[in-house]
Design brief:
38% of the residues lie in helices and 14% in strands. The chain is built from 17 helices and 13 strands. Strands 5-2-1-6-7-8 form a six-stranded parallel beta sheet, with helices on both faces. Strands 9-10-11 form a three-stranded antiparallel beta sheet, with helices on one face. Strand 1 (9-13), helix 1 and strand 2 (32-37) form a beta-alpha-beta unit. The protein starts with 8 loop residues before the first strand and ends with a helix.
Length: 391
Amino acid sequence: MALPLKGLRVIDLTKDFAGPFCTMILADLGAEVVKIEKPGSGDETRAWGPPFIDGTSYYFLSLNRGKKSVSLDLKREEAREVIRRLVVDSDILVESNRPGTMSKLGLDYRKLRRINHSLVYCSISGFGQTGPYRKRPGYDIVAFAMSGIMATTGETGRPPVRVSIPVADIAAGHYASTAILAALSKRLITGQGDYIDISLFDSIVSWTTYLSSYYFAAGKEPSKMGSAHPSIVPYQAFRCKDKDLVIAVGNDIQWKSLCNALGLSNLATDRLFATNPSRVRNRDILIKILSKRLRGGTASHWHGIMVENGIPSTPVHSFSNISRDRQVNHRKMLIRSERGGIPQLGSPMRFLRSFNPGFREVPRLGQHTKEILDELGFSPIEQSRIESPKS
């Protein structure tokens, strides 16, 4: 059977990360995603490199599998007419321009809804379509720094650090796709589309979860703890002979198993460490004891013992480890083209009764322009006007 969104069309007017990440999720679910790009340069992430693979940046490759690329200059009325014709038979439109831009182009929700009242229209921006910050430009690191999370990263006494992936972008992309699917579900009942306003800032603030609850409950700012957890101990990375090992003890049964596995069974019933609240209170004493013990062996040695005793743990993996990992390969999270080239990440979504796609190509800039214009009924003369440079 086909994937769940097979037969639905998405107009993708996004760029950078959050929007393309959202529309890639929709493509992975089977939707036809028509990505509109600027003539000549396309989505600016096409130039975010090196490295480049066949002239396309690794960054763009990571966000645009399975899409169609149509090259249009939306400053031109002819190009905007293409969008309006696309809207007639499309289901979803996603855009990530600065608030007010789509209205100036005449492609805002209010106008396009007149063409297709069942259209689900999603805007993704740095700070949302309303509020005092709405006009500010916003990239991932700005939203991350403003969320409160960045202030808790890194080690005590050292500068805060950026997470190595754009978590605010990813949060916004996920929330956008979830909201779109919710609007589609509602449309099945009402026949009406909806307008969705997603911001990077809102999205990453919502990810603060227990950090914000800690502040509201205790009246204290969460502190920097490196890899450690504020309310679970031990739950962090430990240095072994050769590399770091993460140990995550989530309950007192696992704690007793850890003590036995490390040959420290006396700690299991010690009143200082017998329960998680006591371990949190006596964190510094306990971590010194565990660190000294774990430094005596390699990460793989201790990890094997942890697995045998049912204790969640792992050596900290590099991407080299990930590429060879048995679970990653079994779950087809790395997909290779029969023609060679670099692997692609697979979709994490699995459906028992739907076909799950294999390797999906990333489009060349403008690769599908003629195909889409033909489908929309534009004549060769009209197409030449649409594609010709503006004088």
